[in-house]
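Hi F.,

I've been meaning to write this up properly since the lab meeting, where we talked about keeping a consistent format for the predictions we share between groups. The idea is simple: the sequence comes first, exactly as it goes in, then the structure tokens exactly as they come out, then a line or two of notes. No screenshots and no reformatting. I'm using this chain as the first example so we have something concrete to point to.
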Amino acid sequence: MSKEPLINAINDISLNLIEMDLENPDDLSSLLTSFKEISAKSESCGESVALKAASKAVIIIQKIINKESQLDKQGAFETLSLTITALQELIINFRPVEDIAFPDELGMDDEESIAVTNEETANALDSTQIPEVIEIAAEPAADQPIDLDNAGFEKLQNSINELSSMILLANAEKMEDVVVILNSFEAIKNEASELGQEKISNKAQTASEIAKQILFDDIHDKKAVIDTLYQTVKYMSGILNGDTEIEEPSLTIDSAPPAAIEESAQILAQHDAAYPQRIIEIITDLASKIKEADFESLQDIANIHSIYEELFLMAKEEGQDFIHQEAVKCAEIARKMVMDEVEDKKTSFEIISTASLSLNEIVTGGGVATEEKPVQTEEPAADETPIQKNLPILIEELVKALSTAEVDSLQDIANLHSAYEVITEMTAVNGPEIVHQAAVKCTEIAKKMVMDEVENKSASFNTLYMA
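Output, unedited:
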């Protein structure tokens, strides 16, 4: 990707910083937005060092906004100015990293990973100051009085501060980031409810629902919504700290264009329709399997991958576009987990788990067929399961995939491996045995091709095709 947008962003902030007053909230907000933009553009260009520097600068600015920074006005200005100079040297002048003097406040010389993790971001906040913030709080605006001797309030304040930093560094297009935000709002909702802080709990509940909408692509302007969620976090913090003048942000989503609204209406209409029984069975089975699965177990994830693949094939056949799209996404995530192509398996598992629960709620909550509108499905024979009835369809899809696959394409062979795994799983109990044995052998051959453990890929590919 071109570095021109990143270069322009760095040059713009270099010019604007000269005229900024770090005691002016508007200037600080503008500065925060600019560094977030540099962070996002650095990630898009694969500039990991620039990403880390910009992300660290975001944390410093946020500390200044929250009045938690140990830097005075001049020190903060110098730190941010030196950061921009270092980024110019790195990105524009192509100087080696080892020759660039980043300010000490960024902590760029330590041995930690270049990528700024959520844990690192959270730890960057000076947690020793949080109890002091609570001690000087004015009369609370919450439903129940704040008990300063209750450690639960300190935990809630920490959770809110951590979420604030997470949102600053979040990318609304990244499912992993949105899942972290979703889970954090859920945790805050529960913590606040236990403490009798219903105003905070209710806001967190609403924000959690909106995060789910982002996760399922139901929102047009994701960036604007993420900014609103950030303001919501600041509002919750203000409630806890007794700030009665803080403005309550609106969590009403009305940014979708007419086309998106129409599409959402179609999806909702589809949700209200009756679902085919075999779709319900697969999703119910999926939810049950995920509930018992271990994200570190290769076998568990492989089984979940197989079910998601079965689901998207069935959903496609039945014209259930929404379910098909979600199943395709989750099948791909599960495949990457099996192939060890994800950095954070726990977060990836949370994504496919959340999707499973949501789909299960959709088809069992209001979408199950009623007696008035029964779904006409052919009853399988006593010795034939619904899965076996769909086996020919899967094999037909496999043949199509084989006819278009390229022997040197890792992605194509990985997809074939996943398809053979599905057939292996489907035929394991009730057969046909000959199909099961062939699928087992082909799964192993495809796996070796992916792992580059075969000498003649063309011959191996021909074996798969003939099978």
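Notes:
Residues 110-142, 253-273, 366-387 have pLDDT under 50 and may be disordered.
The domain at 272-365 is CATH 1.20.120 (Four Helix Bundle (Hemerythrin (Met), subunit A)).

If this format works for you, I'll send the rest the same way.

G.
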